[in-house]
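tl;dr need the bound structure. longer version: we got a ligand (TZP) that a collaborator sent over and nobodys looked at where it sits. i said id run it. heres the input, straight from their email, havent touched it
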Amino acid sequence: MTNQPQHLSGAFVATTLTHFQQRAPLVHCMTNDVVQAFTANVLLALNASPAMVIDTEEAAIFSPLADALLINVGTLTRDRIPAMRAAIAAARAANVPWTLDPVAVGTLPLRTGFCRELLDQQPAAIRGNASEILVLAGIDAQGRGVDSLHHSHLAITAAKQLASRSGAIVAVTGETDYVTDGERLIAVSGGDLLLTRVVGTGCALSAMVAAFCALSGDRLMLVATACQLMARAGEQAAASGAGGPGSFQQALLDALWQQGAEVQP
Ligand SMILES: Nc1ncnc2c1ncn2[C@@H]1O[C@H](COP(=O)(O)OP(=O)(O)O)[C@@H](O)[C@H]1O
Ligand SMILES: Cc1ncsc1CCOP(=O)(O)O
Ligand SMILES: [Mg+2]
């Protein structure tokens, strides 16, 4: 086990993005009510295809047809659980990778119990902020609603434990993102504070993580690539003169689009 985090090369990110845009993954998103349109727009900006299918019967039909599945518990209700379970079961039976975003896991019993249950369902990836990853790893830590109260570097050990236990690639995000398979560790720095002032950047990043899991290759590197692209787009959006969250959100979509401008259809 290496203690020093690795970094992705720019060349790897560029090549992976080209493959991604050629593949144009169809992503089945079962996500929260706050971030639906933003998540879809983020995926579209990268040339992926989002589809928000939430009925239990339809979700079980659709997840095997998709290239990836996202489960985000941000506005979980009791009624939505059977549909998510059905989508995951059907995805697994069809070898479609699924990704968990455990929004605000911790104090709230419904989502906390459900997320813990899902750890046994072989997620391909888990993406959360530091408080969420600490909680999922079984550490007594709480966030503040959907926001983290912890720095990401304090959750590296927890992320590794969670990855080893679940088999998932775990991305714990924050000022620096850390991505691990339980042994290897990649650090992704950069981004911009404005990423935390627009709702849904974490959720949309989880959708990107899900989508990148549709590619073949080293999944640790693929998940880190998703994090790197969001960080880079955040930097470029801020540098483009965005005066605050409103213009930043628009600039972020444009910057994601421009990451792979040369291969856009
Ligand atoms: N202090 C920060 N500086 C720069 N980027 C950040 C900072 N905090 C979070 N980010 C970025 O914001 C995005 C969302 O991450 P995060 O805020 O951790 O998730 P969530 O919205 O689920 O709490 C990620 O791309 C992450 O790298
Ligand atoms: C505000 C809010 N409340 C329930 S889900 C949600 C969105 C959280 O988005 P993110 O985790 O990307 O900040
Ligand atoms: Mg979140």
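gonna send this back to them w/ a short note. The radius of gyration is 17 Å.
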